[in-house]
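Request from the bench team (R.T.):
"We need a structural guess for the complex before ordering more zinc ion. Sequence and SMILES attached. Just send the tokens back."

Command: build protein-zinc ion structure.
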Amino acid sequence: VEFGPGGRPGYCGHPEIEMALVELFRVTGQERYLAQAKRFVDARGQAHLADIEFGRAYYQDEAPVRSREAFTGHAVRALYLACGAVDVAVETGDRELLEAIEAQWERTVAARTYLTGGMGARHVGEAFGDDFELPADGAYVETCAAVASVMLSWRLLLATGNVRYADLAERTLFNVVATAPGRDGRSFFYSNPLRQRVRGESLDPDRPSPRAAAGLRAPWFEVSCCPTNTARTLASIGAVLATADADGVQLHQYAPGELRIRLRGASAALRVDTDYPWAGDIRIHIEQTPADSWSLTLRVPPWAEGSVLRTPDGEHRVATGTAVARRAWRPGDVVDLHLPVAPRWSWPDARIDAVRGCVAAERGPLVYCAESVDCDGDLDRLAVSTGKGPREAVATGLGAVALAAAGSWREAGPTTWPYGGRPVPDGRAATVTLVPYHLWANRGPATMRVWLPEEA
Ligand SMILES: [Zn+2]
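Reply to R.T.: structure attached below.
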């Protein structure tokens, strides 16, 4: 009543209620909930909320939702608002609103997103930065923003069928959401920077951490949104792996498990066997199926050039995007998808000046990092050679595939003034060990870098 037709013209400074109202409409069928969600989305940006030191973008009140070009301001609020806008757009058939959010997503992914999929570069205002403002060390990248990004990607995937949304969700799940909890399951990162300059301090397990960024995962936070958001996301992860429609079944994310669905009025059951992302082989057993033909659609990530699909009808290479196998399936049929997960180097766009001259290692969907616990020297003086790709290396006690790369140490400069003539390389050879970024800071305090200077 208070915010309804003829009521107060405002809206909440922390968007979330829009999603909840649409969900309430879906459950109850009562139109008034959908109408209220639409009212909140449409009204936003009319400066009903106070202007504060972080600017109106902090409350997502700087401009109407439809007229924005990219996500801006407080990252979690921006992404939750976009989720609510997509929900409203889908339920009201509002193509213009859906296309506006799609365009904002495109621009944000193209210029305001970290290699990990993380969003929100600035600590001040917990906010998106300007285009290409993506510092590795100062990165805020709140865990909740990653959860919100996955929620948005899932909604946009359902609304459009565009697999790019599933690609970003995978990158974000493996490299930010999975990074937040420690291996002990009792400590969490709130902030997920791509570089740690100083070793973190061990924290009292019985006290909340006053800092979002601590270098080690903290057992408690005063504002404990991220731990609960991570737990909720991991507990419901099965809900974002696959979809089904009149055409068949679509697998978007790969994890071992069973899928039981209604397909054309009949029961279907699929079992997925895989050790992904450590290995790129995914085997799908058709255990129960309707008699007539349907399509099994499998996502092939953008890094998986040279993937191979094997079905009872034969074997062939498949392009990135989606691989579709259509036939009258029989119980006992097996489909094998092979995604090459060979390690590779990735270079940043030259406009991301904070990491210009650096490279990062990736393998399959995983981003890797160098951690000082594996390194006999100062990480800041290390450079890697990209003449050869990183290679798979012996494990480091993390139960994960580690990588190794050739590199060298660089001479430290003069001690009194850190500027002057062109630096001379030390030339002393180094072997650089790289571990999956999501596992960093599990072996005690360490410095860390995702982006490593490339040898000249
Ligand atoms: Zn949070």
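Two things stood out. The mean pLDDT is 94. The pocket of zinc ion is lined by residues 142-144, 190, 225-226, 229 (CB under 6 Å).
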